Amino acid sequence: RLMKHSGPRVVFVSSSISVVMPLVSPVGRAVSTVRVYSCRGRSRDGSRPSRSRHISTPDRPSTATILRDAVRAIPCPAWSRGWCAAVAGIIEATAAKPGNVHPGASFADLSHADLVAAAVAIAPAMQSAPHRPLGLTILEAVRAARVAADTNANLGIVLLTAPLAAVSDGEPLDAAAVARVLGRLDRDDAAAVYRAIAVGRPGGMGTADSWDVHGPAPDDILAAMQDAAGRDQIARLWSYGFGPLFAGAVADLGRSLAAGAALCDAVVEAHLRQLARERDTLIARKHGPLAAAEVSAAAAAVLATPAANRPEALAAFDRSLRDPKRLNPGTTADIVAAALYILLRSGRLRPFLEFDTPPCPAPSPHP
Questions:
Q1: How many CB atoms lie within 10 A of CB 234?
Q2: Are 229 and 329 in contact, with CB atoms under 8 Å apart?
Q3: Fewer C-beta within 10 Å: the chain N or C terminus?
Q4: Whole-prediction pTM value?
Q5: Each residue of 183-198: pLDDT tens digit?
Q6: Element (H or E) spanning 18, and its range?
Q7: DSSP per-residue string spanning 21-80
Q8: How far apart are CA 14 and CA 43, in angstroms?
Q9: Of 333, 327, 224, residue with least CA distance to 285
């Protein structure tokens, strides 16, 4: 059975793991979805996790409850690589970054619940990343996320986080270690990565003259990434190294936190700085390079706004990214999520994480 009532709690039972989540006081009606997987990625009888059902409840959980329960549902030990990958996605999704989905703003095809479910779903694949081919890790993570959210919720996050998670224990988590991981890729990895992209079905990919993602996989995935580097930030990092990630978003987050910023404020600040530093390639592919350049200039203008006027400037910037057309800086969000993983895995975020009182306040719903 999928669900059993047990006093004031609901016990959600899947073929792979059982998780107890407390109910909250009724404040409306909503549909809750619980998707949890074993850290081994399979059930006790060896079968793969199946798509979970939607369970109607008379409760609308608060943001605090959503976050607390999401972290409790991660089927990997706290501070392990799988746990860190999931928590990075949860925090990134919950910070009210301009133009992105968060608890107060959804897209027609993507919600905060989708992002949280997908973040939890990739934990088992990331947990085993050092012990299996990178392509297989990416493919299994994308498949799990697609089952959990039934939309492309985190393909970019998977592509950036998987090489980081594949760094072995005992090695420093730095750009050189990631380069060694990528240097071991072979034809099978290329085929698995291409299959993962097909499963994820990202938007705005278009077509290319060589190594098109809609065609056959190349023998060398890094050669394909180099071909795409001019139009995709993630491909650029795969091709030329993760150094800019460490020097950019990771450093931005570290400086904001060291200056005393709250965690989600630091995430928003890092998002703005990354967007001002580099044009978002998702926006560029969907709306053209001029639109991407204008968004980057607007992010820089927000950063230059005096602190007293920053909230109003940030709100105006957010509105400009949603209306009259959706200018979603999604690749920038993926980069911030990867930076959060690095800080989580290195232990630098331990002082900021107390999930009994969640790391991000509930934002006001977007009009």
A1: 22
A2: no
A3: N
A4: 0.81
A5: 999 999 999 999 999 9
A6: strand 18-22
A7: EE-----S-EEEE-----TTSS-TTSPPPPPPPEEEES----HHHHHHHHHHT--S-TTS
A8: 9
A9: 327
